[in-house]
Amino acid sequence: MLFLSLLYVSIAWSSPWRSSVQLSPVISDKDNLSVLEHLKNLSSDQFLGRKFASPGSIESQDYLVSALKALSIPAFNNQYRHHFKQSTLFQSKQGTNVIACIPGTHQKDEYIVLTAHYDHLGTKRNKIYNGADDNASGVAALLLYAELLKNSPLKYSVILLFTDGEEVDLLGAKAFIAEQKNILSKIKVNINLDMIAGSKKTKKLRFLKKDLAQLLSSQQLDELTQLQHHFKTNSVIHLTPGFRRVKSVGSNVNRANWLMASDHGVFSKAGIPFIYFGVGTHKNYHSEFDDYANINQNFYLAAINIIFQQLVYIDNAMYEGVIPD
User: Fold this and answer.
1) Tens digits of per-residue pLDDT, 114-150?
2) Do 128 and 43 contact (CB within 8 A), yes or no?
3) Distance CA 66, CA 49 (A)
């Protein structure tokens, strides 16, 4: 089995890292089983690779909406499905973002946006590209976070944005930014999860961050950096800043431009700070071998825990900055 109780990293309070902010507790074994079940389901043949504007995509949407309803997670602006069009010279296709929102306890009208794209590549040469790492892993994590945050909301409201069309020029993220101009100034940060389970040999969870100085004081930025360094040296995922500058495997997309490699790039272009978590490319990327059997389960469960702790830290740290002296 997975030896779940051995996976997690607690903060070594005797270490040089210090914070007045209490970090979240580790995620339970029950939560781990739930998130793995979501990942397994979403990357099954049932969804035929979740290709943009396909029957498998619609089934994926149904799955997400059902899961959110089962958890009593409120829909964003009173609807879960937010449609958009991709129009070309010869045809028009409909994409659909699935969006929910959990009100914050203190700053209800300001938002942290969590993103994970649910679309993938569909089928090629009669083989299903199930996209377990890319990106059923991020989607399943967001479903778990939805449950955790419903029971213990953050200070800021959290928008859970499951984007469509990431594999087609980041269409879903672009549609969200275009449709939500009235709240863009209220979005404090985007945290994007795209490929956080890796392959069997994956050893590092990488991250990219930009413009966090708009949110956090220099002291808080230093604390966050120290926390991330702690996770690099004291966890099974070896949290590491930056991505390898290589062209992606199995795709004509040049992922060397990591600033625009996934949905966070759209938020960044709109002036919104972000942190992007992912493993980068690996041998199963954009292939029929990216399935549930080939992910690194121990790595994945540790990753979702450590990402969640950083989310809670950022939420608390941002609020510290608005509390009157």
Assistant:
1) 999 999 999 999 999 999 999 999 999 999 999 999 9
2) no
3) 19
Asked if 148 contacts 68 with a C-beta cutoff of 8 angstroms, the reply is no
Contacting residues for 39 by C-beta, under 8 A, at least 6 apart: 132, 136, 137, 139, 140, 197, 292, 295, 300
DSSP, collapsed to helix, strand or coil, labels residue 191 as strand
DSSP H helices in the chain: 29-42, 55-70, 137-151, 171-179, 218-233, 264-269, 297-320
pTM, two decimals, is 0.91
Please check whether residue 71 is in contact with residue 142, taking contact to mean a CB–CB distance below 8 angstroms. no
Phi, psi of 97, rounded to the nearest 5 degrees: -85, 140
Give bridge partners of residue 127 from the DSSP assignment: 124
What are the strands, taking DSSP E only, across 180-265?
Answer: 187-193, 206-210, 240-241
CATH code for 4-320?
A: 3.40.630.10
For 84, left (φ over 0), alpha (ψ -120 to 50), or beta?
beta
For residue range 54-106, list pLDDT tens digits in order: 999 999 999 999 999 999 999 999 999 999 999 888 889 999 999 999 999 99
Which residues are 277's β-sheet partners?
A: 193, 207
- Is the pLDDT at 4 greater than 80? The verdict is no
- Identify the DSSP state of 112: E
pLDDT of 252: 43
pLDDT band at 318 (very low <50, low <70, confident <90, very high): very high
d(CA 185, CA 16): 36
Domain boundaries, the chain: 4-320
